[in-house]
Specification:
Order of helices and strands of chain A: EEHEEHHEEEE
CATH topology of chain A: Jelly Rolls
Oligomer: homotrimer
Radius of gyration of chain A: 15 Å
Number of helices of chain A: 3
Largest interface: A-B, 30 and 31 residues
CATH architecture of chain A: Sandwich
Strand content of chain A: 35-45%
Helix content of chain A: 25-40%
Largest sheet of chain A: 5 strands, antiparallel
Number of domains of chain A: 1
CATH superfamily of chain A: YjbQ-like
């Protein structure tokens, strides 16, 4: 079964911590051992796992991505969000984490972040949990 | 079981839409719920899921990758394709998508693209489908 | 069951070939068909699959990442390793490979590399193998 997590972004570019929401979905599944798969069904967004302790870490990620892939350039896609598509390919749209004793196994400093690159919008993350 | 999808590239750098080929393989598997895993067994190629509606999106991705990782530079790998190896690591060589009701679940604008970074060549994508 | 592979890095930035260690863990599992999942529980490290024949390939990857994401810049995360966090998101922290006849299926030139971006440290890679 696929669960849908809704994410509301409030800025054009924003990394949103969804760790607790993913933990809740895993907890509701009652699966004690397995893998939790995350998939972003959008082309101007992404997902990443990185430090959640200091909120400045994801700000640095956003700013460096903006330096490498500027908002405005001589892009050929004319909808004004070509940079967001490129950022999506660079961070990727899927990530997984292991489940043990009913809980997702993240490192001490890790959190799961939805990467909004063309917000604000209402977005989705598809989540599938398989026992094993 | 692992299926092998053959992909023929025609340029040095080229993102090739393989969505229909993946759909066909999922359809032939007769699996109605599960996950479809894609793996590129090459070191100068990759895979990404991004917009397939406007073909200019993947052109922008290629051109920006070329700006960030130029074809020629003072690379230490002397086969003339060091940039292709670096691009491969940046886009990644694997992606998965969920299967529901016998079909892969992609977002409205999403397509699956084989990323050729050192073509033209005959390439492969390994595909594994697991029920669950 | 989750296996833990320990990796000792010796430099600040270093791509370490862990292919043989992963092969050994797959071999010990006695699983003949399935998928081997790798997950790095760190926020200043990553994982990638790329060429292992010429060791200069991963040197080029490191050097290009250093050009794109310099060690020192006006980062907001003040622990002196903001670049390592950004590099982690760009290469990613997970990768998988298929298992057939008890062996991982890699392309001719492929090896699995742990990416250290803030070493030297003792690191871990979590490995989970599922039959299927």
């Amino acid at each position: 079964m696929i669960k849908i997590l809704k994410v509301q972004s409030n800025k054009r570019i924003e990394l949103i911590d969804i760790t607790q929401e993913v933990r809740n979905i895993v907890s509701e599944s009652s699966i004690s051992e397995g893998i939790c798969w995350l998939f972003v069904p959008h082309t101007t967004a992404g997902i990443t796992i990185n430090e959640s302790a200091d909120p400045m870490v994801v700000v640095d990620i956003q700013e460096q991505l903006n330096k490498l892939i500027p908002y405005h350039s001589n892009y050929k896609h004319l909808e004004g969000n070509a940079d967001a598509h490129i950022k999506s390919t660079i961070t990727g749209i899927d990530n997984y984490c292991f489940i043990e004793n009913g809980k997702i196994m993240l490192g001490t400093w890790q959190g799961i972040f939805f990467c909004e690159y063309d917000g604000p919008r209402e977005r989705k993350v598809l989540i599938k949990i398989i026992e094993g």
